[in-house]
Amino acid sequence: AVQDETMNAALLALLRDAGHEPATPSNSSATLLRLGQDVFDVLMTDASCQDLHGSTILGFVKQTYPETWIVAVMWAQDPWREAHRSLADAMLAWPASINDVVQILNRRTA
Question: What is the Cα–Cα distance from 73 to 8, expressed in whole angstroms?
Fold first, then answer.
């Protein structure tokens, strides 16, 4: 848990430094509510979330907010990985390093 908190803090700092305004909703339902309130250029989401199936949130965001670039974060061995690949603009295998995140964000701006 401490390692996740450290990674989350580093990730938030990285996103802010790259000019993004990160938001950290607590679950998928809160994410969907937040997307209805603000415009986001990038969505990094845990595609293995517990409250909504990853395909549900990824598909909804892709259809409703097509301008939002979607990064699905998931364990490399996740059985839904291939299904999510078609709904996401990029895949980030977890655990990931900050360098992995930088590479993903650089693809967005390339």
Answer: 13
Q: DSSP 3-state helix, strand, coil percentages of the chain (rounded to 5)?
A: 50, 15, 35
Q: Is 6 exposed, middle or buried (0-12, 13-18, 19+ CB in 10 A)?
A: exposed
d(CA 12, CA 26): 15
- Mind listing the pLDDT tens digit for each residue in 20-67? 888 988 888 888 889 889 888 888 888 776 667 778 888 899 999 999
Other CB atoms within 10 Å distance of the CB of residue 69: 20
- What pLDDT, on the 0 to 100 scale, is given for residue 3? 58
Half-sphere exposure of 28 (CA within 13 A, CB side): 18
pTM value is 0.81
Decide: 9 and 1 in contact? Cβ < 8 Å.
no
